[in-house]
Amino acid sequence: MWSFIKTLKRYFHTIRYLKLIQFKYRLLRLFPKKINFRAIKNLPVSSFSDPIWLKNKKQTFDGKFFYFLNKKIEFSNEVWSKKFEDVLWSYNCNYLDFINEQTNFDKTQYIHAWIENTSLEDGISYDPYPTSLRIVNLIKWCLSKENYDEKILNSVYFQTIVLSQNIEWHLLANHIIANLKALIFAGYFFDNDQSKSWLTDGKKNLLEQLDEQILDDGAHCELSPMYHNIILNDLLDLVQINNLSKTKNDQGFEIALNRKINSMLNWSNKMKHPDNEISFFNDSTFSICSRFDELKEYKNCITKEQFQDETKNISYMSDSGYISLQTDLGKMIIDVGNIGIDYNPGHAHADSLSFELSINSSRFFVNSGTSTYSRSKLRNFQRSTKAHNTIEVNHTNSSDVWDIFRVGARAKNINTKLINKDNKIIIKSSHNGYKNFIGGCIHQRIWEIEKNKLSIKDKLLGENASGMSRLYLHPDVEIKSVNEYQIQLMHSDGNPILIDIPDSKFIIKDSNYYCEFGLAISNKCIEIELKNNSCRLSLTKL
After folding, report:
1. Is pLDDT at 57 greater than 70 in this prediction?
2. 342 and 295 share a domain?
């Protein structure tokens, strides 16, 4: 009986935040429209200047093998529609990212193979999200050719018709941006009444979604550095195709996009580490999105307006709930916000009050990362509180992350203060994620940074709470010595680091760093047991 009630509560807290439009379109998806399409001879296509795109590095295909997401699959005509256990791999296979890679073989036959061996009934092949990415890739590929292939043109046109009737209003968030980008691309590319409606509706809906999804501090609302950079790349592509169009160039559209792009670039800059790669919050991982420096260069290449860096040594991005610090100690990024957008927190992790730290130019403390979107124990772990540099209470997640992309009851930030005084930075923050599970428990954390020293103080305010603090080390960090109260660490390219843990018992455990999809690298985790509901530690660069 208790299990049933618990399940009901979980579903209630999961669906209570959904928007009315999401309910509406979830119902409409139960009654799909029938699509009849006949090939059109001499499809009208607009004229464009020579294209320049930011090169994609996500996929590799040599004509014999696909290699992406750290998985190698031999090519066959069935690969497009085959249902692999890893659904994300099937998605990536259907993006056709590889057609715009610089390789020494003709991609035409493989595009034809995709057309001939997929159908609406496949499910994944024509799912709106891979369809959106594929439409954009195919249009980019077409624009690189002197002559258009009629079979491919008709396929792109048909795919856009299918997409236009299956826009992911039931999901919103990053998916709707990808859908609308594809509609706009097709609207620019083709030149008839249908394409004009795609362009008009696509622009209108996109600008409305950007006003909703891009927060005042420049962050995308899902609070994932990876998806943030993906969407930023999308907007830059839209600026570019608008600029390339000889007949449909829209200066107002470009201005509106650039306002978002500039603020998003600044947020991306603040959220990267000294290695120029993204931080690992909310389903972020390497080798999927472009880096900040690549996006900045792309923007400077395609627009007259150069990027203006507004980054400061101390930045509290209050809308997204992150604090970025560059000090003598290194670069630290702290999560003091809520878990993400309420109506679609699918990429959220239960990581309240977690942080990452780079010392000198190298990563030191890391969140565990993301390597899978498959329904599995590993996926559950990677989203869990215990996979992050924060406090887990009574073996319970601070937010109820469940299934692959679901969140039930979720933590809320209570109060955050940032004090910069007398050469000392103090950050105080709390969250109430455990309040619903453990008798009114509040997790309070204080960071103090002074010269080459970092102190962290944790306290659980509440009864019957048992806490565990975790610190995940980058794989390149070695443990040099350990005694009852201290751990000496050494990064492969840095100074010795001394960690003092004076009041609590700790152990060092083997773990994994999931820095790419399909990849696990051995690392170490320091587990610290809270004593009397509190814990304090200090880190000093020697």
Report:
1. no
2. no
The answer to the question of residue 71 being in a domain is yes
Residues 234, 367: one domain? no
pLDDT for 389? 98
At 168, is the pLDDT very low, low, confident or very high (cuts 50, 70, 90)? very high
Is residue 129 packed enough to be buried (19+ CB in 10 Å), middle (13-18) or exposed (0-12)?
A: buried
Q: Are residues 60 and 110 in the same domain?
A: yes
Q: Which amino acid is at 189?
A: F
Residue 335, in any domain of the structure? yes
Q: How far is CA 90 from CA 93, 349, 371, in A?
A: 5, 24, 15
Please name the residues in contact with 244: beta carbons below 8 A apart, sequence gap of 6 or more: 48, 49, 50, 51, 143
287: left (phi over 0), alpha (psi -120 to 50) or beta: left
Helix 225-244 and helix 292-302: axis angle, to 10°?
A: 20
- Number of domains the chain is built from: 2
How many helices (H) and strands (E) the chain has is answered by: 12, 22
- What CATH number corresponds to the domain at position 338? 2.70.98.70
- Residue 460: which domain range? 314-465
Instruction: State whether 426 and 449 are in the same domain.
Output: yes
Asked if 279 and 427 sit in the same domain, the reply is: no
The verdict on 123 and 58 lying in the same domain is yes
C-alpha separations of 407 from 14, 113, 157, 238, 349 in Å: 6, 39, 37, 32, 9
Cβ-contact 397, 410 below 8 angstroms: no
pLDDT attached to residue 440: 77
pLDDT exceeds cutoff 80 at 11: yes
Q: CA 222, CA 339: separation in Å to the nearest integer?
A: 8
pLDDT on residue 123:
80
Tens of pLDDT, residue by residue over 401-426, are 999 999 999 999 999 999 998 889 99
- Asked if residue 413 is part of any domain, the answer here is yes
Query: Contact at 8 Å (CB) between 353 and 443?
Result: yes
**Where among 276, 302, 328 does a domain terminate?**
302
Please write the tens of the pLDDT for every residue from 293-336: 999 999 999 987 888 887 889 999 999 999 999 999 999 999 99
Phi, psi dihedrals of residue 346, rounded to the nearest 5°:
-60, -30
